[in-house]
Amino acid sequence: MTKYFERIIDINTGKETVRDYTAAEVAEVEAEALQAAARTAEAEAQAAVRASALAKLAALGLSADEIAAL
Questions:
Q1: Fewer beta carbons below 10 Å: N end or C end of the chain?
Q2: In angstroms, how far apart are the furthest CA atoms of the chain?
Q3: Are 41 and 49 in contact (CB under 8 A)?
Q4: Cβ neighbours of residue 45 closer than 8 Å, sequence gap 6 or more
Q5: What is the pTM of this model?
C-alpha cells in the first residue's frame, strides 16, 4: 500500500511539518486514481473504435480527404 503524506512548510518561519494522510484523504486519493484510470481506459477504447472505423472506410475505397469530410 502506498503511504500518502503532506509536507507543510511555514514560509514565515521555514519550519517544515510532515503529516500522514487520514483514512478519508487516502480513500479520496485512491478513488480519484481509479476514476482517472477509468477515463484513460475509455479514451483508449474510443481511439481504438475510431481507428477501426477509419480503417473500414479506407478499405471501402474512400480517400483520406473523403474520410475527413465525414
A1: N
A2: 70
A3: no
A4: none
A5: 0.66
